[in-house]
Amino acid sequence: MAACVDKWPPAAYLCRLPEKFYCVLPDCTATDRPVVTASAAPAPAASGSSGDYVWDVLRAEAQDDADDEPLLRKFYHGPRPVAAVAGAHRAAHALWSDNRRAPALLLQSRASEVFGVDIHPGARIGCGILLDHATGVVIGETAVVGYDVSILHGVTLGGTGKESGDRHPKVGDGVLIGAGASVLGNVHIGDGAKIGAGAVVLRDVADGTTAVGNPAKPIIGKKAAPQRRPEELPGVTMEQRWSD
């Protein structure tokens, strides 16, 4: 699955629900991801504003939660905390991209206070993200996170002290980042890579590689992981044993 994070429009999100791709903003078809129109996909709002599309996808995700949980479907719907965190970031990111910085930062601050997760509204996060337990996750302004990435609690995608410029990690598709790991600086984590719990990553990690330790180094002595289908990537399977 080729990463397309560098081609994303500033506020574009593709939200993938089972067997469907939802196009959230009008220009998201500019990416190299497939976009399939489905009957359940949120229809573009008449105004065409980014805020309208954000609400469309939040409603679609709420329906997906209800489809998975009979209790929610029959009685009430309360979004799962990890979904609420992602939704809050989507809204804040849309505001940030629309140059409405004050309300974006206000929403970020409130989400951090409520959920204990600090995601800068400028960060770009692909669909299918799982913030498992979520508490203590920090993601910086220029970070980019690909599709179907799983991030456990206490993870930092941070900088190395620079105050401006592109200074945060770029995480590929299907990556699994273990609890307490820190990925620092403008480094690239390849598709299907695994970052071990407590690792401190200061250099690029190749596709399909498991990196552990402080400073993090790839586990050696095994063959490189074979090309896998998207559903077999560690960010989807949550398989935490080494894969290289």
UniProtKB/TrEMBL annotation:
The lineage of its organism: Eukaryota, Viridiplantae, Streptophyta, Embryophyta, Tracheophyta. GO terms for cellular component: cytoplasm. Residues 216-244 are annotated as: Disordered. Its EC number is 2.3.1.30. It comes from Oryza sativa subsp. japonica. Keywords: Acyltransferase, Amino-acid biosynthesis, Transferase. SUPFAM superfamilies: Trimeric LpxA-like enzymes. NCBIfam families: EPS_EpsC (NF041874). Pathway: Amino-acid biosynthesis; L-cysteine biosynthesis; L-cysteine from L-serine: step 1/2. GO terms for molecular function: serine O-acetyltransferase activity. Belongs to the transferase hexapeptide repeat family. Signal peptide: none annotated. The keyword Transit peptide does not apply. InterPro entries: Hexapep (IPR001451), Hexapep_transf_CS (IPR018357), LbH_SAT (IPR045304), Ser_AcTrfase_N_sf (IPR042122), Serine_acetyltransferase (IPR053376), Trimer_LpxA-like_sf (IPR011004). PANTHER family: SERINE ACETYLTRANSFERASE (PTHR42811). It comes from the Eukaryota. This is serine O-acetyltransferase.
